[in-house]
Known about the structure:
With 258 residues, the protein is of the alpha+beta class.
Amino acid sequence: MNEKARALKLENTHFVTPHGLDKEDHYTTAYELAQMANYALKNQKFAKIVNTKQTSISINGEALNISNTNELLGNLYGVDGVKTGFTNNAGRCIVTSTTREGHQIICVVLGADTKKIRTQDSVKLIEYVFSNFDYINIQCKITEEFEKWKDTYLKQVNIIKGCKNTPNISIEALPYKEIPIEKEKANDIQIQIYANQVIEAPIAKDTQIGTMQVKIGNETIAQLSIKIEEEIKKKNVLDYIEELIQKHLPNLLINSEY
C-alpha cells in the first residue's frame, strides 16, 4: 500500500493497518484521499460497486441484503460514490464523488461529530462548487492564441546561418481540455507568450524557443513549452554559393539580353 502511495506521489499518506483503524503513523489528508478516490474510480468495477445503493449476496447458501452506508447516494443529484468512514480519532468521514452534466468533482469531509453534520457539510460543498464554478475549454483558448501569435512571430523570427528561414513550431499539449473556474473570474484568463526572435543554427529538433504562460488573475495555472519541430542545419559553403546564385542570377540573365 505504501509503495502504491509513493507511486501516486501521495507524500502525506502512510499506511500501517490495511483496514484503516487508528494506529500511530497511520495517516493521510483530505486532498490525498481525493487523489486516491480519483485514481480508484478509473477502475470500472470499483466505480460500479461504490455507486451501488443496495444488493443481495449469498453467504453459505443464504441470501443477505446489504446497503451502502453512503447516505448521499440516491438522495443527492449526481452522487455516484465513494466511501464513508469512522474511527474515534478521525470522526465521521466521507469521500463523495458527484457527476453532473459530464463533470465530476470529489469532495472530502473529515472529523465531523455526527453523520448529520457530515452530510450537511458535504451537500454545502458540492452545491457550492456546481453553483459557483463553470468549465472553460482552455485548450481551445490556448490554440486560438497560439495560432494568432504564430502568424506574427514567424514573420519576425531570424534564424542566423540556417538552411531554413522559417521554422515549424508547436506548443506543448495540455493533459486536459477543460478547467473549472469561478464564474466571476471567467474573464480573467490571461495568455502571455515569450519567445526568442533571433536563433542561431544549427538547431536540434524539439529545441525550446519560448514559453506560454496561462494565468487566472495572478495565478499561473499552466506553463507550456514552444518548440521547433524539426532539425535546422547550419549553412555550409555550398549553401552560400547556391544562395548567391539564386539571388543574382535573374539580374545576370536580364543584363545578358542587352
